[in-house]
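Title: Comparing notes on inverse folding

I've been comparing how different people in this forum approach sequence design from structure. To keep things fair, I'm posting one structure and asking everyone to reply with a full sequence. Here's the target:
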């Protein structure tokens, strides 16, 4: 959702009905908490089988901290932070408009609206993740090639043109479209099942559970594609390019490492889902507590929700 988007700022974007400022603040909190897990995920996904650097998720965390300090876990952070506002606007705009065009708030329409939003935001998500991936993999010190996300994209554009900046677009589209659909579908079904209504004293824990469950299922639905996407976007960073496209990447990866290659980094990804949502909801609670007065809350309660029982602005927040 995106799924790197999902796991980075998804939590905030899934809290529908919140003011834009609260969503953005929560999105930043989610990115800050989730980015180290994303860095570990990418490192594990693209490491060489012949010369593996890491034995697993914990060893990868430890190695990065020892060799690059804690800041090494936050390489490429600027890219998702830059894209957060644009993706936020695209996802909510497309998802809401699609749902209204479909005419009925149902689980299937939630899936279709989410899938449409996931597909459209790839225009921003793909270059953003390309820069993030390259920065997460680059060496420290004088050996580094890029000074930041914009410098990374500028260098890629000078060398490879627009096609280079959009490397991995097809795999990103194949990942984001169904994963966003699964996320919004699961979120809708779980919030309905849990009875998430304004005024419920357990609303935040219920939404946390709904968000975490949705994130996990959406990642599981397309994770092998994410591995392929990461490999394609990292191809050539440390050596000669190896892959001629999605199918060639899948074929070479499977031949060399078997089916397990498509689960690399999955543990880190699933561990990220709940802390990201926890940070998101904690931030939303604080922001709305101090930024919104009783008058604002009473006005919101009179506005019909866009879709689903969880979309109304909860008064307890």
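Reply #1:
Here's my take.
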């Amino acid at each position: 959702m995106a799924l790197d988007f999902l796991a980075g700022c998804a939590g905030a974007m899934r809290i529908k009905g919140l003011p834009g400022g609260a969503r953005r603040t929560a999105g930043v909190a989610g990115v800050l908490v989730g980015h180290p897990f994303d860095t570990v995920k990418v490192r594990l996904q693209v490491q060489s089988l012949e010369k593996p650097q890491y034995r697993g998720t914990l060893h990868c965390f430890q190695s990065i901290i020892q060799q690059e300090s804690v800041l090494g876990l936050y390489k490429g952070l600027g890219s998702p932070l830059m894209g957060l506002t644009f993706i936020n606007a695209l996802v909510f705009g497309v998802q809401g408009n699609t749902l209204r065009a479909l005419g009925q708030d149902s689980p299937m329409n939630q899936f279709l609206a989410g899938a449409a939003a996931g597909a459209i935001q790839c225009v921003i998500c793909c270059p953003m993740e390309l820069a993030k991936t390259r920065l997460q993999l680059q060496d420290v010190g004088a050996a580094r090639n890029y000074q930041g996300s914009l410098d990374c994209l500028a260098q890629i554009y000078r060398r490879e043109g627009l096609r280079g900046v959009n490397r991995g677009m097809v795999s990103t589209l194949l990942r984001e479209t169904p994963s966003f659909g699964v996320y919004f579908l699961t979120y809708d079904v779980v919030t309905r099942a849990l009875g998430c209504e304004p005024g419920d004293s357990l609303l935040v824990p219920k939404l946390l559970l709904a968000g975490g469950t949705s994130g996990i299922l959406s990642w599981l639905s397309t994770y092998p594609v994410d591995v392929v996407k990461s490999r394609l976007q990292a191809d050539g960073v440390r050596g000669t390019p190896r892959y001629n496209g999605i199918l060639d990447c899948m074929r070479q990866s499977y031949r060399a490492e078997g089916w397990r290659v498509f689960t690399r980094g999955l543990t880190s990804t699933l561990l990220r889902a709940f802390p990201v949502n926890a940070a998101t909801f904690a931030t939303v609670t604080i922001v709305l507590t101090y930024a919104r007065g009783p008058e604002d809350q009473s006005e919101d309660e009179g506005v019909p929700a866009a879709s689903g029982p969880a979309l109304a602005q909860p008064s307890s927040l």
